[in-house]
Design goal:
disordered N terminus, globular, alpha/beta, 4-stranded mixed sheet
Length: about 450
């Protein structure tokens, strides 16, 4: 076995080709369904349908991408724009949400932290409106930057995004019971430094939360009981689920009247039920959030932030599952409505500010992070040796993966080349999705000299 591995070590090449059916498309989920809402708190419904047309592909050549980025945007008659910063703890699902909003995968996604290493922009162009999404690294601290050998820019990029944002989305992973009950100190510090930027709370991975009634508790804790400047009173009643099992909990969602509830036309009142069943068979049949007197932002000093767990400045709250696209279009529609009159920054043919090579590197790196253990993938250096168009219009890419140790090289290759083969295959499919063309990807693995 040693001889084949030694031979493979010199030059490991695995190729992934496009299927005969052509390039794969990744877009928001099919179908539509109105989510049950608590004011603007959305709970899961069926995956919502795509907004508008298919998003444009990423240009396959660096020159074409630079031409689009440097050229004058094709302004509509009455353009509108909104710059959105997405912040949150590492691995909260920021890049996954960005990809879903864009309708195409251009940002790396991995279960490991710090997959996103620099600030990148995604562009959504819908009719006369342009949304500019700032996908930033997870808010971190100097200790973690040193531990994971990260670029120092990871400490400053999220702050730079806030300076240029018209709206900030704070993403919280509700499936992580260790962190979901409070915002991180880095997030709170970021919000307190830019209180003038409107903020929206987005609860992600709601589909992984078994006890759905906990969502109301999380809302109360993460907002300190205040949304849109009004004090909230969260009420929920529970009953044994004796209804027919033929319908899913999502289909059984309904709003129940409350004796103290104002008419639906009153903007300061809210109603709606989660209709989501937990593992014990208990269903949240009624849930309401009642707004009270206006509340101002107080206690934003360093001492107060140390004791603070939530943020009372959120204007809206959304609940979704970005991985499956559930309720992402609901959030997208809201963002489109928040856009203000102003000139577009990008041509309508631009999907991301990244170069084609950056998109490629990030996608391959995502797979390396996924399949290599612990800190090993953070030491891999990627060198692109070939990037050209083939005779049939396919994109030919050859990339060399340099690792610091022979043991790391053997882990990356895998037994019989299975690991590197899977990385090449999955990365190739994602690249076809990004560029909308056939892709032939070759990966080589070598030890750094």
């Amino acid at each position: 076995m040693a001889a084949p591995i030694a031979a493979a070590a010199r030059s490991v090449r695995w190729v992934v080709r496009a299927a005969a059916a052509g390039p794969l498309l990744l877009g928001p989920g099919e179908g539509s369904g109105a989510g049950v809402r608590i004011r603007r708190l959305r709970v899961l419904s069926k995956p919502s349908g795509a907004l508008g047309q298919h998003p444009p592909p990423v240009a396959t050549s660096k020159e074409e991408q630079e031409r689009l980025l440097r050229g004058r945007p094709d302004q509509p008659r009455n353009p509108k724009v909104l710059r959105i910063a997405i912040i949150g703890a590492p691995n909260a699902g920021k890049s996954t949400l960005c990809n879903r909003l864009l309708g195409r995968k251009v940002f790396p996604v991995s279960k490991k932290v710090h997959t996103t290493r620099c600030q990148a922009r995604g562009v959504i162009t819908h009719e006369d409106t342009q949304l500019i999404i700032l996908d930033t690294p997870g808010l971190t601290n100097p200790f973690k930057v040193k531990r994971h050998k990260l670029d120092e820019a990871m400490l400053t990029d999220p702050w730079d995004s806030m300076k240029h944002a018209d709206l900030v989305l704070v993403l919280v992973d509700v499936s992580d019971h260790w962190t979901r009950n409070s915002l991180s100190k880095e997030v709170l510090k970021c919000l307190s430094e830019f209180p003038q930027v409107p903020s929206v709370l987005v609860l992600n991975k709601v589909d992984l939360l078994k006890k759905k009634f906990l969502l109301l508790q999380l809302v109360n804790e993460l907002t300190e009981g205040i949304v849109n400047g009004k004090k909230l009173e969260v009420r929920a009643a529970f009953e044994q689920n004796s209804s027919s099992s033929a319908k899913s909990p999502l289909q059984k969602a309904q709003a129940s009247p409350s004796e103290n509830r104002a008419p639906e036309s009153n903007p300061n009142q809210a109603r709606g039920g989660s209709g989501l069943e937990d593992h014990s068979g208990v269903k949240a049949s009624e849930a309401s959030v009642v707004t009270g007197e206006p509340q101002g932002l107080t206690g934003n000093g360093p001492k107060e932030l140390k004791d603070r767990k939530g943020w009372p400045g959120f204007q809206e709250i959304f609940m979704l599952a970005a991985l499956h696209g559930e309720e992402v279009d609901t959030l997208k529609r809201y963002l489109l409505l928040q856009a203000k009159p102003g000139p577009w920054e990008f041509h309508s043919g631009v999907l991301t500010s990244q170069s084609p090579q950056e998109v490629c590197n990030n996608i391959i790196r995502e797979k390396i992070l996924e399949y290599l253990p612990l800190e090993v993938p953070y030491g891999v250096t990627q060198v692109t040796e070939m990037w050209e168009e083939g005779e049939c219009g396919e994109l030919l890419i050859v990339q060399n993966l340099l690792v610091p140790r022979k043991s790391h090289m053997m882990m990356l290759i895998g037994r019989g080349g299975k690991v590197i083969s899977r990385i090449a295959q999955e990365a190739g499919l994602d690249l076809m999705n990004a560029f909308l063309c056939d892709v032939r990807l070759k990966l080589k693995v070598e030890v750094k000299s």
